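Researcher: Next entry in the queue.
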Amino acid sequence: MRLFDRVGVVGAGMMGSEIALMFALGGYPTILSDQERAQADTALDRLHGLIERGIVRGFWNAEQAQAAQHNLSAVSGLEDYTDRDLVIEAVFENAELKRTIFARLDSILPPNAGLASNTSSISIASLSAALAQERRRRFLGTHFFSPVSRMRLVEVIPTMDTDPAFFDQVTQALADIGKTPIRVKDVVGFAVNRLLHALVIESIRLVEEGVCSAADIDAACKLGLGHPIGPFELLDNTTNSLSQSVHEILYAAYGERFLPRPLLRQMVDAGYNGRKAGRGWYRYDEDGKRT
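Model: Structure for this entry, 291 residues:
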């Protein structure tokens, strides 16, 4: 039994598109949009490819995977969300942009519809300022992890205004789509990103000091700490510019311990943004494979 009738996701990048995929696999009719319709259509094609190649199998059976093809659709813009009862925002880490989207959705959605932000570091309460007081009861943070199709954890972040019943509905819906939700207090960076980026910053410092190469640190974290991916591989997959933005947000909140490292700034300024750019801490060919 579904807890929401119709789901919408705003933002058709890697995170947003795979969040939409998970809800579609869970049986929820789900729409996806981006700044341009073509971006949402491209993301939809990629998701259908993931389903057809069986990448999302495991938690999902073949019948659910086939049904997801029909549950997923791309739309042109927020005006198509008038019938949604749960919408998840998954655009890039810019508080002003997120508030603009939430203000528009607040005026478009039915009164009882819920909203969530997939921000990885911005205070959920600060984003709720864009919403009318009544809507704030049905608003919280849902921080998914990349790649969403494989990572099961979701940090769920209520604000001081979030209705406990809505929090329970969202966490149950997340469990129903194969995720493991944990409750986290509404603080900047939440829990996992504070842990992760402390590691990332220290890893970059080790490279700056010539203690280890990026490749050796990745090997150390995988073979010595049991991590599935090294910090520099992760940086390249998620983009260096995103990590720099997160470090700046954490630095503003917590001070020197999260000061963005000079080498990371140099990488971003040089355009070495990771896998999609063809170069980051590693080099990649046109297909995104390391060379």
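Model: The chain has a mean pLDDT of 94.
Researcher: Noted, moving on.
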